[in-house]
Amino acid sequence: MLQRQENAEITPPVVGYESMTGERNKKGRETNPSSEDIGALQSEIDKLNRELRAFVAVALQHGLRDYCEARHPKLTEELEKFYAHSPLRAKQKYETIISRISNVPGLQGTPGDTAERIYYRNAQDNVAYIEHALKRKRFVLGGIWVAPHYRGKGLAHKILRVLVEAADEADLSIELYHEPFGEEGLRVNELEAFYNRHGFTMHNTAPGGMVRFPQSPLDLYVGK
User: Fold this and answer.
1) Cα–Cα distance between 64 and 50 in angstroms, integer?
2) In terms of CB atoms within 10 Å, which end of the chain has fewer, N or C?
3) CA distance linking residue 203 with residue 112, whole number of Å
């Protein structure tokens, strides 16, 4: 009878090209995986690691520290160190985003008197402004106002696209609260559709508002 070796080390088999494609070379031997196969496998590993990191982060936020520490101690320690400095990091990210969105192609942004607005001007006029703040470690967008005679020209899209790209790079969520600007502005359902196209969704962490998490997919913008 075979006896179990208590301290035996299990070595996983080497995955060859045949394991991925079912092919052999002319001599009947397995060929080495191609760089494309290795790249695809590494991409899948990276994706799984990101999903695991997100799962542990959510579990920690819901008070399951013992569970996380028992199963993923190094990742738990790393995330806890990150959260210990997260308010400062969020402020730094917020300031980075503000700097980025002050320069929208074709527009020049300047801060308002309260520093919670950015006004945009083209070569002739003041054409738009946004209201913003940092709350709960999120970039809070109070809406985008566009001057009536400049509406329908894609200015809001242009400003918002720069904002979401900057937030993605900074890895900061955007929380949005929007209200129609007068009778000439978009209605509530139209506003929601507009923001949906930029990755915003209703979420229970922002009652009455919308949230865009970093790297949320964007719908194709059909306007020019």
Assistant:
1) 19
2) N
3) 30
DSSP H or E segment with residue 111: strand 107-111
Ordered DSSP codes for 162-176: HHHHHHHHHT--EEE
Give the Å distances, CA to CA, from 182 to 148, 171, 187.
Answer: 10, 33, 9
**CB 213 within 8 Å of CB 143:** no
Give the ranges where the chain is alpha helix by DSSP (H).
17-21, 35-61, 65-71, 73-84, 86-101, 155-170, 188-196
DSSP single-letter state for residue 139: E
pLDDT score recorded for residue 141: 95
CA dist., res. 120 & res. 128, Å (int): 5
**Do residues 134 and 90 make contact, with C-beta atoms less than 8 angstroms apart?**
yes
* Residues whose CB is less than 8 angstroms from the CB of residue 51 and which lie 6 or more positions away in sequence, other chains included: none
Token digits for 39? 């790249």
Q: What is the pLDDT of residues 59-83, one digit of tens each?
A: 887 788 899 999 999 999 888 877 6
159 and 195 in contact (C-beta within 8 Å)? no
